[in-house]
Amino acid sequence: MNEALYERGLAAQGEQANYPQLVARPATPPVERAPAPLRVLVADDHACVRLGVTQLLRATPGATVVGEADDTLALATQLDMTPCDVVISDLCMPGLHGEYSSLAVLRRLAQASGAPAVVVLTMMSTPQILTGLLQIGLTVIVDKRDVTVALLSALAAACAGQAFLSEHVRAALDNAGADCAPCAGIPSAREWEVFQLYAQGMPVCEIANRLQRSVKTISSQKRSTMRKLGLVTERDLIDFATLVGIT
């Protein structure tokens, strides 16, 4: 072998021997990002209820209140302007067209693909109304008496696409039995106007005179409203009016 090449080879080996050793570093584990907080919109026409619900949610890790509404128009506006994952809403708020219900908006949310999940807050214990809610897809219902113990479970169920009924809601439906017929729809603005005046103590003939309608029309609108609300007796009517703050 050429002596010069041999010597250069030895020198090269010596240089390689002085190279630093390359040691593989352990793989850095991926950083786990916390899931984005659940964006919640709270709607109720009673400020004390909104305050209680929002305080409960703000004390809950993983949830954030992105907006509040005190009537159905404000709810619809918030839905247009504020992205959210869940709507927690009262059922009996002033409506868009003079009626006293946010049901029309909540029903559209329940039936629309990709819409926010809905948790219904209510003091309604009329089985016909509760059954009607279930039939139109509003299957997460919390009685306001159960909020502190049931709202977070209801929120989780709504996000998972599962049904949830709080204790007082289940009791009302259980007491009614399997043959409970759902309510017949949403009272119109005119029907609701008649209902309010009657519930406040105005006789049918005076309502007819005030609204410039016939006594027969007023009586028909009163009966229609009671049927749609699942109210059978005058006592039911008074109890309902007291519950939603008409009287």
TrEMBL record:
Residues annotated as domain HTH luxR-type: 182-245
Assigned keywords, A-Z: DNA-binding, Phosphoprotein
Response regulatory domain residues: 39-159
SMART domains: HTH_LUXR, REC
Cross-referenced PROSITE patterns: HTH_LUXR_1 (PS00622), HTH_LUXR_2 (PS50043), RESPONSE_REGULATORY (PS50110)
Sites bearing 4-aspartylphosphate, chain numbering: D90
Coiled coil (UniProt feature): none
GO molecular function annotation: DNA binding
SUPFAM superfamilies in alphabetical order: C-terminal effector domain of the bipartite response regulators, CheY-like
GO terms, biological process: phosphorelay signal transduction system; regulation of DNA-templated transcription
Name under which the protein is recorded: Response regulator
Organism whose genome encodes this protein: Paraburkholderia acidisoli
Organismal lineage: Bacteria, Pseudomonadati, Pseudomonadota, Betaproteobacteria, Burkholderiales
